[in-house]
Write the structure tokens for this entry.
Amino acid sequence: MLSKITLAKKILLIIIALTLTLLFVAIIIFYVGGERYISAEGKKTLKFYSNLINISFKEELKNSSIELRGLVNQISYGNNLRIGNLSDEQKQNIKSYILSYPYKYSKLLFFKNRTEDIFSAAPIKVFSGEVKISFDILKPTQVSKEIQKFLTIPKSNIDTVFIPDKNFTNQFLNILITGKNKNAINVLALLRDDYMFNKFVNHLSLPPNVSLTFIDHDGNIYFSTDKKIVNQNIKIGIPEVSESFSDFLEHSETKFYSASNGINLFTNLKKLGLIILFQNDLTMQYESLNKLLGYVLLFSFIIFLIVFGLTKMLTRQLGMSLNQITDVALKVGHGDLEQQIDIKRDDEIGLLIDTFNAMIVKLKKNYEALNITNKELEEKIEELVKTRNELSKKEKLAIIGETVSKISHEIQNKISGISIWIQNLEYQLQSDETSKMYIAEIKTALNSFLEMLMNFKKFYRTPVLELGNIDLNDLIKNILKNYSTAFDSKKIELKLSLQPGLPKIIADKKQIEEAFINLVINAIYYSPEGKPLKINTIVENEFVKIQIIDYGPGLDMEIKDKIFQPFFTTKADGSGLGLAIVYNIVSAHNGKMNVCNKENAGACFEIFLPKGENNAGVIL
């Protein structure tokens, strides 16, 4: 079925298929690339905030430890300090420190050892909203067991942070600042973790689509930017991440997890023994991507329509051209050589049409020529031309020369016999004037044919040169004297510009004369009546240059490369060997030829022959 579809439609289908495929691939790459970009940016955002919160937490604990250490140093003066008997100045220092952070600490406990009293300082918010400091003296047995265990911590210069057991009604962190010796005052600060967490959130400036949650290893939610899930278990508060949470507990390494609406990140806050969950809701980004995809689809559809329309228009024109070419080709195939494709195009199809039309013309000419090409000589010449196209120039000339020599020898033998019979016939018909006229025409034709054979031999034989010193100026003048009648008959004004003192050349005088005569005869033939003919000689580099310029119609540059080929002629009665023989003679003298058209003149033939000292390598 596909074979019945026209070429134009096949091209249309192929282009449509390729366009759709490219658009589809481009859309897939765009969408997948967009998703990956959004995911990568989402992960990058969560990674940034994860690193930032760890740095902020360390800085906060470090600053709190430094502040508490400074407070301990302020109240630790004098000898035999007793916790139960602090001075008003020491209490004022404690009060000032707590009031500078009224919502930071739940309580500060000062002690020296487990057997002594404990001095307690706690901020209390009264009904008016003002924060006041409550001081109290406690026995070790009056504090919770969890606090009692800190009283037994070995004294050292190392500040320690502890997280207590979970207590939903009073969430806090414990910072223990120990003195420098056994009599120094120690302080246990109960830091409110909601204060610290809120400070983190404010410091992070999280975007609306990013949420932050602190979870212990049992899945209990300590803190979250979503206040509704605080104090709940993760399975109840955030059930969609419970499976990812279980997986994270097994590996305990920072890890990203894909969610239905974005990216989740679990990481450890090891100092507190907590797990941080960042949730990046990428819904808006995906909606923007989908919206952009809609525009891309619309743009792709517009591109497809444009490509389809252009392809349809071009293939329609192509189809019309191909249909006409096919019709003409079928008619030509059936022998109708009068057909031509009447289509003008400036593309490859136009070139094909022009070539096809030219081929039809050539076929017609060849067909007509074949009907009259029956003679043995013409067949031999055609055979020589074919052989010339297959061999190198020297091989071609050798083979063709040998063949022409054999043919001409046979023809000369036959012509010699014919000449004898013509002489006899002329003798017998002396009184018949009509017969004598016909016999004279036959003799003229035979002589012309013999002259053509001699030209064949000259062209296809490598010239054998008899070298000598030649003055070109004198040679040209002598030759031109013999053609003064021809110049006068066409009223041609001869203009000579021969360089004085022109260097002599080493050449075969007869060969050079023959070459120059051929060019002069050619110039006279094409010169209009009453127009000048210029002949110049000049030294140019290592050559002596001869210029022959006529004022005829000039040379068609399209045939410039053919004029020195044998059998090529623009004359109605020419053999096509004159310029070829000239070219062979010049080449045999290590010279070169050039042909061009001169402005405000006609054709210009130029011969370059080496000066005498530069022509030692001519063929002998």
